[in-house]
Amino acid sequence: MDLTYSAEDEEFRAQLRTWLDTAVQRQSPPPPPGDWPARRAYDTQWQRTLYDAGYAGLHWPVAFGGRGLPVSQQLVYLEEYARANAPYISVNFVGLMHAGPTLIAEGTDEQRAFHLPRILTGESVWCQGFSEPGAGSDLASLQTRAVRDGDHYIVNGQKIWSTRAHVADYCELLVRTDPDAPKHKGITWLILDMHQPGVDVRPMRTIDGESHFCEVFLDDARVPVSNRVGEENDGWRVTNVTLRFERGTAFAQHVITLRSQLRKLVDVAQDTPAVGGGTAWDDAEFRRHVGRLDASVDALWRMTQMGIADTERTGMPARSGSAVKLRYSEITQEIADLLLRTVGRAALAGVPGPAADAMREYLWSLQYTIAAGTSQIQRNLIAERILGMPR
Amino acid sequence: MDFRLDDDQIALRHAVRGLSERHFALGAVAAREDAPAADPAWRDLVAMGIFGLLVSDGDETPRNGTVTAAVALEELSAHLATGPILWTTITAPVLTGGEIEAGRVAGVVVVGDAGGPVVIEHATEAEFLVVVHHDRIERVETTSLPEVIAGEPSDPLTPTVAYESVPRGDVISGPDEARTIRLAGTVLAAAQLVGVAQGALDVAAAYALERHQFGVPIGSFQAIKHLLSDMYVRVELARSSTFAAAAILDDERGGDAARAAGAAKLLAGQAGIDNGRAAVQILGGMGFTWEMLPHYFLKRAWVLEQSFGTAEFHALALGVALGAGVVKA
After folding, report:
1. CA dist B308 to A389, B74, B269, Å?
2. How many Å apart are CA A90 and CA A258, to the nearest integer?
3. How far apart are CA A119 and CA A294, in angstroms?
4. If you placed Cys at A84, which of A20, B75, B123, B327 could pair as Cys (CB 3.0 to 4.6 Å)?
5. Which region among A31-35, B211-215, B313-317 has the lowest average model confidence (pLDDT)?
6. pLDDT tens per residue, range A120-136
């Protein structure tokens, strides 16, 4: 076991750091919360900047336009990316982390040739059409129907929790193609073009007052059969490729970002006057709390590194993914809670700056233990699949 | 960069597991209560080379020695192995080879002059006693120790005694060695805690499959599943942190050694204690009896938690370091 980086890795780090420092500085300030068209423009422009500099799709194989970098350099990239406080992957997340890897694993040559370059350059934005009002944790019970009509599928139904669907071009869509088969056996994975009359996207207002998530209503939406990924009725297997990526390593950026969130908490505490003099940071119990969080954040990063290395070696996402997902979502909430307590009553009046941000981040953090498999589902998965408890 | 154990380390893990099953079978744990670290178990540990894992061969520092030692100590600890394994392992580099051959070494870290009694594990069954101060290591003759303060050790598998004070001994090493031993002790105590946490999980999971209520195994209830999966998460997180810290001790270019060691000890201590408690809970009424295994794991976890810095100690050190911005990227 050896945690040192090679000379080549360090050279890659040095170049990347220099480039990132300049590129991040050149970025204009991000758009205000809620302006989604501007957000899309901002995020895709940043993705294009990464692409032009040769930093897009580092984990994708070279044959599909990626850089095919060794694991150690992917880790360096994530560390430096977080250190530079570079923009969050945001609207490019589904394309780069879900749809792209799924097409690489299961798509046709035509699908790959068309979509992969567009994802890498930020030209097209993807969303996910998995969950439905009646199919959340029990995803396989989804009801959105697709019926063959010549060389098209006609799709009817409703999707929910589609993140940033209001600015997406394509949707990775799960539909039921065989209602008579057992629930896992009648599902198909389709690429849906969002720009068509049968697709109606309605943003949902969430507890933080924003609208990251959408409902997607499908009313005779049309999908060419050539947009099917995998065989008809084999979509559950294809989906699990995606879900395993999601539970495996796609969260690496979240994990590494915890470091900067923790540093920000320390910064705010050091600037926040305490009753009776000094600052919030002078409280030893506060520092211990931060110390405990720091230990967990560090361990999560180690687990993530080990998981990514495992995935690279075996081709299968690491089984530690559920554990990482569980803890990082809880720690995100713990940091947000501590930050909100630190800024105090100013958050109640939404005073612009750290106070208003703290309340928004606190409320937003509550989605982490729900999205992508609730913490309760993750615990079931660990107990059943890893510890062998009966279902 | 390589996160895997090498073939020799994996082979050692299997060998240690075999030894543990022979000498430290969990089914016969009651027979080892209050018993010294007796031969043939101790002789076999010596023969396997456990206590030489950190010792240089001539000028050659053992490559990845701390990681290898962590593998062995985790496995032994999962079987609640008896004897002063941790201190004998970490002090071997500063005690001369021939003299301590097959000898048992007890030790204690003294922080400043805290006053109050000095509590030492294994002091009464060891041939050697080492006291680690901030700036030096002393060897104390066990014959020079005062009378022990009468008491009953909390862990029936770790003979632990208190003295009003410990006499001064011969200074055998300086501040650098003292730091090295403290770091190695911190990381290897963490490895032992990972073993305790894993052992407690194994016992609880086996019981959850075996014990039936309402006509089904209690492991089919989500309430039990979630307790078990939290145990798993704690032990996996602690293990990642511990092995990373061990690798950093072996090559400090990999990170900040003190910070990594403290983080590992903190998480492993929480995993050991919380998993010990969770095992008591999952075994229910039986878990509260002396007859079942959970209390042994919980009591051993507390012994280790109180060695080489408690969770509170390391949490404060980590917090202060983060606040001072001295953390290496």
Report:
1. 36, 16, 11
2. 16
3. 34
4. A20
5. A31-35
6. 999 999 999 999 999 98
Active site residue A246: yes
- Whether B304 and chain A come into contact, CB under 8 Å, resolves to no
Which residues, including other chains, have CB under 8 Å from residue A80's CB and lie 6 or more apart?
A: A13, A16, A17, A20
CB pair distance less than 8 Å for A299 and B241: yes
Selecting among A106, A172, A246, A361, the annotated active-site residue is A246
Contacts of B187 in chain A (CB under 8 A): none
pLDDT tens profile A203-253: 999 999 999 999 999 999 999 999 999 999 999 999 887 666 555 556 788
Q: Do B319 and A294 touch (CB under 8 A)?
A: yes
Q: What are phi and psi of A125, to 5 degrees?
A: -115, 135
pLDDT at A152 (0 to 100): 98
Question: Which among B68, B216, B224, B233 is the top mutation candidate for probing chain A, defined by the most A β-carbons within 10 Å of its own β-carbon?
Answer: B233
pLDDT of residue B97: 61
List the domains of chain A with CATH numbers: 7-88 (no CATH), 126-233 (2.40.110.10), 249-386 (1.20.140.10)
Quick check: A41 contacting B, CB < 8 Å? no
Residue B102 has pLDDT above 70, yes or no: no
Residue A388 has pLDDT above 90, yes or no: yes
C-alpha span between B33 and A111 (Å, rounded): 67
| Of the candidates B132, B15, B137, B1, the residue with the CA atom closest to the CA atom of residue B68 | B15
- How long a stretch of residues is chain B? 329
Chain B residues within 8 A of A388 when measuring between CB atoms: 205, 209
Top-confidence residue, B102 or B255: B255
Task: Using DSSP bridges, classify how beta strands A170-176 and A126-129 pair: parallel, antiparallel or unpaired.
Answer: parallel
Residue B329: pLDDT band with limits 50, 70, 90: very low
Q: Which domains are seen in chain B, by residue range?
A: 176-324 (1.20.140.10)
Q: What pLDDT is attached to residue B328?
A: 44
Contacting A residues, span 53-72, partner chain B, CB-CB under 8 Å: 71-72
Interface of B with A in 50-109 (CB under 8 A): 64, 67
Look over chain B and give the mean of its residue pLDDT values, rounded to a whole number. Answer: 93
**Percent of chain B scored above 90 by pLDDT?**
87
In whole angstroms, give the CA distance from residue A80 to residue B244. Answer: 20
Do the beta carbons of residue A171 and residue A165 sit within 8 Å? yes
Please give, rounded to a whole number of angstroms, the shortest distance from the CA of B193 to a CA of chain A: 15
Is-cis flag, bond preceding B84, omega within 30?
no
CA A21 to chain centre: 24
Among the partner residues A3, A376, A378, nearest to B247 by beta-carbon distance: A3
For residue range B255-307, list pLDDT tens digits in order.
999 999 999 999 999 999 999 999 999 999 999 999 999 999 999 999 999 99
Please tell me the distance from the alpha carbon of residue A353 to that of residue A31, in angstroms, as a whole number: 15
Q: Which residues of B touch A8 (CB under 8 A)?
A: none
